[in-house]
Write a structure and sequence with these properties.
alpha/beta, Nucleotidyltransferase, domain 5, 6-stranded mixed β-sheet, 15 helices
């Protein structure tokens, strides 16, 4: 069966077509500068036709960022699912509306093909109440759905499976920490294949330092800056989401640029990287405490997979806790999952390429088979 995976953003649509018999990628691409999602999907259809893979499409899987408490797994898309995703837009105003546009236009163009929504938040529905509740008035949860949801779930689920395969152990027996470090960044503690805590919260703004997002922040900072500057809530939201993180600390959003600036003696870049990696170390320690026993730590996504110095700094000083990086292994550029810890190290440390698109394709088939993860 062929499964098309669509990741619809506000200004781009990424797509990947899989042959699910062997999980091979038949074709992939991106349509950028999207102004009309229908026209963009027509471009995707043309690209599939030109590549010779337009026939016999079995299903379409859509990435949706926020599933709230309603969606704890993938969902076969019908009118009620579309409306539920629409109702969740206030929780993810930058993502869900664009995801929904892609879904609606795809339904118009391919009503003959079953389509499934796969949610970033669904993997984290196993968080216990002590991990997802905030210490705020109860009505905030009851009336406004304020709680920790977590994100990057499809990535972390994909990586967790690969960690188990690499170690040759059942996923159900493993406790692990997965660090998804890209332009967005999160860390998740996983016990027996289930998320038990994660750094992102109600929105992807919480937790680790990111390319443009602040991560953890004293809420009173917002009130203080609002009083001193006169900025509106919308302006403060934009500052914390689009102009903070690495950009706020050193003026660049890409870790590669930050590392280049640091190498040239830029003190602001050096500070930004120090703040970035120190925050990661704190979360590793906290999640080790939450898990009690850690069988593996895995780095994934753009920074996690490709920035050995960040991995080394994130784990620096954790040797007494059983985490020790081997410098030569860490610098290696081999493909696929690989170990970077010292021989004999108490806790395996791995680099694992994420494959969110394949995970979405697999969950799409599971949903159609009535076997939701």
């Amino acid at each position: 069966m062929k499964v098309l995976v669509i990741n619809s953003g506000s200004s781009s649509i990424k797509y990947e077509l899989f042959d699910m018999h062997d999980h091979s990628v038949l074709t992939r691409g991106v349509v950028e500068r999207v102004k009309d999602h229908g026209a963009a999907l027509d471009e995707v259809s043309r690209a599939l036709t030109e590549s010779g893979h337009a026939e016999n499409l079995g299903a379409i899987g859509h990435r949706v960022v926020h599933g709230g408490e309603r969606f704890t797994g993938p969902a076969l898309i019908d009118a009620s699912v579309v409306e539920a995703i629409r109702d969740l837009c206030p929780l993810a105003p930058l993502h869900n509306p664009a995801n929904l546009l892609g879904i609606e236009r795809a339904l118009e163009r391919r009503p003959d093909v079953p389509q499934v929504a796969v949610f970033d938040t669904a993997f984290h529905h196993t968080l216990p109440p002590r991990a997802y509740h905030y210490a705020v008035p109860r009505k905030w949860y009851d009336e406004y759905q304020v709680r920790r949801y977590g994100f990057h779930g499809t990535s972390q689920q994909s990586v967790a499976k690969q960690v188990a395969a690499f170690l040759g152990r059942p996923l159900e027996e493993l406790n692990m920490i997965v660090l998804h470090l890209g332009s967005g960044a999160s860390i998740t503690s996983i016990a027996g294949g289930k998320s038990i805590d994660t750094s992102m919260g109600l929105t992807p703004l919480d937790g680790l330092v990111m390319g443009t997002r602040s991560g953890n922040l004293d809420p009173a900072v917002i009130f203080h800056v609002a009083r001193e500057s006169g900025m509106s809530l919308e302006e403060l939201d934009a500052e914390l989401s689009d102009h903070s993180g690495l950009e706020g600390l050193c003026g660049v959003t890409d870790m590669r640029d930050a590392l280049d600036h640091e190498a040239r003696g830029d003190e602001r870049a050096a500070l930004a990287i120090d703040v970035y990696t120190y925050r990661i170390r704190k979360f590793i320690g906290a999640f080790m405490a939450a898990l009690g026993r850690v069988d593996a730590i895995a780095f994934t996504a753009g920074v996690g997979e490709n920035a050995p110095s960040i991995r080394a700094r994130a784990c620096s000083g954790l040797e007494p806790m059983g985490i020790a990086i081997d410098p030569e292994r860490n610098e290696s550029r081999t493909t696929g999952a690989r170990a970077i810890h010292r021989e004999g190290g108490a806790i395996p440390v791995l680099v694992v390429p994420t494959n969110e698109e394949l995970e979405i394709a697999e969950q799409t088939l599971q949903c159609l088979a009535g076997d939701n993860p």
